[in-house]
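Lab meeting notes turned into a lecture example. A postdoc, R.K., suggested we walk through two folding results consecutively so the class can see how the record format repeats. The first protein's sequence and structure tokens come next.
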Amino acid sequence: MKLAVFDFDSTLMEGETLEYIAKEYNIEPLMREITRNAMEGKIDFFESLIKRVELLKGAKESKIIDICSNLPYTNGAKETIFELKKMGYKVVCFSGGYESATIPAQKALGFDAQFSNIFHFKDGFLTGMLGGEMMFSDSKGKMLKRLQTLLNISENDTLCVGDGANDLSMFQYAGKKAAFCAKPILKEHANIIIDNKDLKELLNFLPD
């Protein structure tokens, strides 16, 4: 058995979930600026997460669920996951985003499991608060190490794919580290670099 772990926003999905939501509430530029600074490693990921969700306080739960259920997936994502599973990989999504988006994505793309964060809704509206498994800059690395231990999978049999600074923590535990249309800070630590928006190119770097 082997393990492939994908980031969600801007990796399996085109763009950032929060920016799609922010567009509905006319705060997309501010949201995009905070996201960019976090993905470039200029501000702490946890702090950026709190700031971004606070911006959406009062948003309708039904609107958020609708947007998250209709996000555009990256070209080649479904085909790549299908091929990886044929090659013996367990395919998992680690997202600093939200299960409102990753649960529909799991059904659409076919990966085996997802670990993400959770919006806090009350009386049908977003409170501006959240919880979950991927809230800190080192969360992905810690979760990856747990999965490797649980499944008895070595670093050499682990593939990680991401685009931003919060993906760095899982790279240290992976033999194959893929930077997909990524920020410079992630490319510096990658041994696979893909600059074309087609995830199928990842398969060119893997043995048959």
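The second example is placed directly after the first for contrast:
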Amino acid sequence: MIEMQKYEAAIEAILFAMGEAVEAGRIAAALEITTEDVYRLVRSMMDKYEAEGRGIRIMELDGSFQLCTKPELYDYLIRIAKQPRRHVLTDVLLETLSIIAYKQPVTKLEIEKIRGVSCDHAVNKLVEYGLVCELGRLDAPGRPLLFGTTEEFLRTFGVHSVDELPVLNQEQLEEFKQQAEEEMQLKLDV
């Protein structure tokens, strides 16, 4: 009995992690049991899922098995899928995004010179969120990537073009520069 539970748990884990149909033979090889045992175990699991009224089921597809949602529950999935994903813009991401928005097209090296720290993670996150994209390569040694904002950036911040971004006057720029220098000095003192 314990052996059967162990195999069922392993099959469930395999089907869940793979996310697609997995051949019975591959499951058998992974568990070091026969293909017939896999069929017997999976069919037993199918019966249990149905008897327990679970939200998932196992489908058999031409000698393969796949874990999936019961069709009668699709409406719930659609409600969740239609909800917009919320991306959290941390201070680091906002700072990096601001530099890109005002300096575009801009390379990572230029962003790092302004921020004083590596920006790989921040730029990658902004690309993942669809707020920033690669615009091409700079015609310079190493051909670094150029980054700029996207239409999603404009939608998110409610502007029609980057020309509508607030213009910073020279006094504000000097104030920001002074704050940045003070922060750098604090970091050096620590």
